[in-house]
Amino acid sequence: PGTIVLGREGACWVLAPDGKKLGELPLPDKTHSRGHVALSPDGKRAAYVATEDEPPSVDRGGKPWPFKVVVRALDKPGEGKEWDVPAEDLGVSWAADG
Questions:
Q1: 58 by DSSP, 3-state: which?
Q2: pLDDT of residue 7
Q3: Strands ordered across the beta sheet of 12-15
Q4: 22-56, pLDDT tens digit by residue?
Q5: What is the pTM of this model?
Q6: Which long-range contacts does 76-79 make (Cβ < 8 Å, 24+ apart)?
């Protein structure tokens, strides 16, 4: 309870309410974070978006960018699921019922 997840460039940080770093949610190899992370309603998982190779650019001429959606458990950050999602822009959020 009271866990904070800080979305940032690079791995997301898992923090205690007092600011103590408890761990990190790693990014897939050869990706960059978009800096936004969404916590599940029960506070046990986090979902975030990563982009392959380099951050998106407007110079791609409308070509979909290779995004990845990543979901990880806060207590087992090395485990999780990843999905490739080609899109021009992408964000994640949780439904209230998880």
A1: helix
A2: 84
A3: 4-6, 12-15, 21-25
A4: 888 888 888 888 678 898 988 889 999 888 766 55
A5: 0.79
A6: 77/14, 77/23, 77/24, 77/25, 77/26, 78/26
Distances (CA, A) of 88 to 8, 15, 63, 76: 20, 31, 7, 30
Q: Give dist(CA 24, CA 30) in Å, integer.
A: 17
Sequence-separated (6 or more) residues with CB below 8 Å from residue 83: 68, 69
Q: Which residue has the tokens 């990845």?
A: 68
C-alpha torsion 66→40→7→78, nearest 10: -70
Residue given tokens 């290779």 in the structure block? 66
Residue 12, CA distances (Å) to 22, 53, 63 in order: 11, 18, 27
